[in-house]
Fold this protein.
Amino acid sequence: MSVIDLRSDTITKPTKAMRLAMANAKVGDDVYKEDPTVNSLEKLAAEKMGKKAALFVPSGTMANLISLMTHCNRGDEVILGDRSHIYTYEQGGSAAIGGIHSMAVTNEDDGTLKIKDIKNAIRSDNIHFPKTSLLVIENTHNQCCGAPVGKKYMDLVYKLMADHKIKIHIDGARIFNASVALNINPSELAAHADSVSFCLSKGLCCPAGSLICGSEQFIDRAVRLRKMLGGGMRQAGILAAAGIIALNKMTERVAEDHENAKKLAAGLADFSQIIIAPEKVKTNIVYFKVLEKISINKLVRHLEKEGVKINKTGINQIRAVTHYHIKSIHIDSVIKKMAKCLKKQIN
Ligand code: TLP
């Protein structure tokens, strides 16, 4: 039985073209900045994001941690969403390792933070308070159903932050999904951000790696932190080669993942036992709940037995993520299997 794995787009495997490029990649020691393939990838990433420089790092988590530590001194405060990945899923690394205090603001369902809430969260100049140094926006917003955050909103945020001289970092792990969904260049979404990170190893199919993009000065500081955190890789061109293919060939195709996610959400909405708002699905992430009488653990187990892997992400919540290995026929199959498993639950 072939498995339909909807747990995450992180499970995607490198394409044939990537494996070929990896096998043939020219490499060198990247800590000495002598890996030509990493250097090319960094140049390409900076161009795509409209920034002066970029840095290749092992993961999205490290990209965020390095970015926060580059912008903030120990004891400074970062404003972020209470459903942001950095706040909820990164082991509190910014506090544990960076000594950075978090000011969590309620995330709206569209992935944004209310401008008035951000305003209220900015600390005044008072000896009792930490200094607000940074604001983080996540785009797309994972836990807000993969919501793409638009340019109009970003412009409002930029204006407010500029008035207060506070820096902005975008956790753009899936910024290409946002850019495709909104039909806008990622560089426009990141236009006034001081830094933006994005992942190669999600919908873009690479085996590993993320990029941090920003000014030359910012990246100079970030390189030192990458080394400190143990993220200085050597012949990383093997990985960067896949990244170059990803940026040149894989970004636009995520539109298909968005279509499949919408199809999945519409199909799930037909089950009376499932609570879902299909209109919220704009990219490749689908969240849904089930009625209380349904055991979510059993449902997930039954689905797995039927060859559908899906993640429980809350007491009563499930997440499904579409990606390169999921085709439209797989969605038909998931809906059929869901019907069977829900029936099992009732009998
Ligand atoms: N997200 C993963 C899990 O950690 C939840 C997933 O399966 O979605 N920012 C955002 C918005 C992310 O969704 C993730 C990964 C990261 C950062 C971290 O990236 P990695 O896994 O490369 O450290």
User: Anything to note?
Assistant: Residues 328-346 form the longest helix (19 residues). The CA atoms of residues 86 and 92 lie 7 Å apart.
